């Protein structure tokens, strides 16, 4: 870097806008460089950098006005206050900041602040050089701690309460007396509040002819881009649906799930039909889409997941006596490498602190 010219200048250095400092050409036998200045300060945080990368001291990004050097551990804390959507812009500031945001210690600050379990990320991912991609996706998009179905029960968000019970869903069939939302489902057991589902206890109910609707989840838009998914391998997209009938009427529930590529061509499809007798208990249907290393070609094309449910009653009664749906859900489940040849989802138990 160039010579250090302006030291601790005060308001007394200028009078009426005139500069009273001694011009540099009149300095006798003075050749004070930035490096010399820092060495004379004897900063405990100064570290000699032998690499010629345009940063003579290796302090670019750590040096603040007045020559004060901030240790990188403090810079980590400062950068952890950056808005999640702006974190990647730190790459453009300097090499040191870019190095910081690729460190596990930096992302652990975010996890601790949000009270996320650091061990939900398996060690085999943490050990990857590109692990920061996954950490960033969690910080910005909450990829491991959210439900990818935005409107899971009709009234999950108080902002939309009693305004648009079917937002983010497309009604395909609206038979009988049509779809209806029951804030407190009738003829069955109540749902227990669950914070993951916004403590919502509402449910959609069908009628005497088939009622079906679907929602499409853009995985890339939700944070699951191809680089993130490739780093997370092996993993599963776990789909689930709570459903029930009534004490006085049974019904039929048809569940269809599809994963699509960027051209909206089907990659995988799952369909199951459930016939229910009159009952009041809620049940949960679950289906995982596992992705392993051998699916890497599909991963690069995987773009969206379509979630379809259809129901009706079996009595053909006027009104809303058909199947009820609540808490539609899609979650990302990380699997362990040892589970690559297994079927289904593996619960990850990682005791490592690294």
From TrEMBL:
<dbReference type="InterPro" id="IPR036047">
    <property type="entry name" value="F-box-like_dom_sf"/>
</dbReference>
<dbReference type="GO" id="GO:0005737">
    <property type="term" value="C:cytoplasm"/>
</dbReference>
<feature type="domain" description="F-box">
    <location>
        <begin position="70"/>
        <end position="110"/>
    </location>
</feature>
<dbReference type="InterPro" id="IPR008979">
    <property type="entry name" value="Galactose-bd-like_sf"/>
</dbReference>
<dbReference type="GO" id="GO:0019005">
    <property type="term" value="C:SCF ubiquitin ligase complex"/>
</dbReference>
<feature type="region of interest" description="Disordered">
    <location>
        <begin position="1"/>
        <end position="24"/>
    </location>
</feature>
<dbReference type="Pfam" id="PF12937">
    <property type="entry name" value="F-box-like"/>
</dbReference>
<dbReference type="Pfam" id="PF04300">
    <property type="entry name" value="FBA"/>
</dbReference>
<dbReference type="GO" id="GO:0036503">
    <property type="term" value="P:ERAD pathway"/>
</dbReference>
<dbReference type="InterPro" id="IPR039752">
    <property type="entry name" value="F-box_only"/>
</dbReference>
<dbReference type="InterPro" id="IPR001810">
    <property type="entry name" value="F-box_dom"/>
</dbReference>
<dbReference type="GO" id="GO:0031146">
    <property type="term" value="P:SCF-dependent proteasomal ubiquitin-dependent protein catabolic process"/>
</dbReference>
<feature type="domain" description="FBA">
    <location>
        <begin position="144"/>
        <end position="334"/>
    </location>
</feature>
<protein>
    <submittedName>
        <fullName>F-box only protein 6</fullName>
    </submittedName>
</protein>
<dbReference type="GO" id="GO:0006516">
    <property type="term" value="P:glycoprotein catabolic process"/>
</dbReference>
<dbReference type="InterPro" id="IPR007397">
    <property type="entry name" value="F-box-assoc_dom"/>
</dbReference>
<dbReference type="GO" id="GO:0061630">
    <property type="term" value="F:ubiquitin protein ligase activity"/>
</dbReference>
């Amino acid at each position: 870097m160039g010579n250090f010219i302006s030291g601790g200048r005060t308001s007394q250095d200028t009078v009426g806008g005139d500069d009273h400092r001694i011009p540099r050409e009149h300095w006798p036998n003075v050749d004070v460089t930035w490096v010399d200045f820092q060495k004379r300060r004897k900063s405990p945080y100064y570290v000699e950098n032998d690499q010629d990368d345009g940063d003579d001291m290796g302090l670019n990004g750590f040096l603040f006005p007045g020559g004060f050097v901030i240790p990188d551990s403090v810079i980590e804390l400062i950068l952890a206050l950056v808005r999640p959507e702006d974190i990647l812009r730190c790459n453009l500031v300097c090499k040191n900041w870019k190095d910081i945001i690729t460190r596990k210690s930096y992302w652990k600050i975010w996890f601790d602040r949000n009270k996320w379990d650091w061990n939900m990320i398996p060690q085999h991912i943490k050990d990857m050089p590109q692990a920061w991609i996954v950490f960033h996706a969690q910080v910005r998009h909450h990829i491991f701690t959210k439900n990818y179905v935005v409107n899971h029960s009709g009234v999950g968000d108080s902002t939309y309460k009693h305004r648009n019970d079917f937002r983010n869903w497309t009604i395909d069939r609206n038979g009988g007396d049509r779809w209806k939302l029951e804030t407190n489902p009738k003829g069955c057991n109540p749902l227990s509040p669950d914070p993951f589902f916004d403590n919502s206890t509402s449910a959609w109910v069908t009628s005497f002819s088939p009622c079906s609707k679907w929602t499409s989840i853009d995985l890339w838009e939700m944070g699951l881009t191809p680089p993130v998914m490739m780093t997370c391998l092996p993993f599963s997209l776990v789909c689930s649906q709570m459903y029930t009938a009534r004490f006085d009427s049974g019904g039929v529930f048809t569940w269809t799930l599809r994963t699509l590529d960027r051209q909206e061509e089907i990659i995988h499809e799952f369909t199951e039909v459930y016939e229910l007798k009159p009952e009041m208990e809620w049940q949960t249907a679950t289906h995982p889409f596992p992705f392993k290393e051998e699916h890497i070609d599909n991963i690069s094309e995987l773009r969206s997941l379509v979630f379809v449910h259809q129901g009706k009653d079996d009595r053909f009664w006027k009104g809303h006596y058909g199947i009820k749906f609540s808490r539609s859900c899609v979650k990302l489940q990380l699997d362990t490498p040892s589970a690559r040849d297994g079927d289904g989802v593996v619960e990850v138990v990682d005791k490592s602190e690294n």
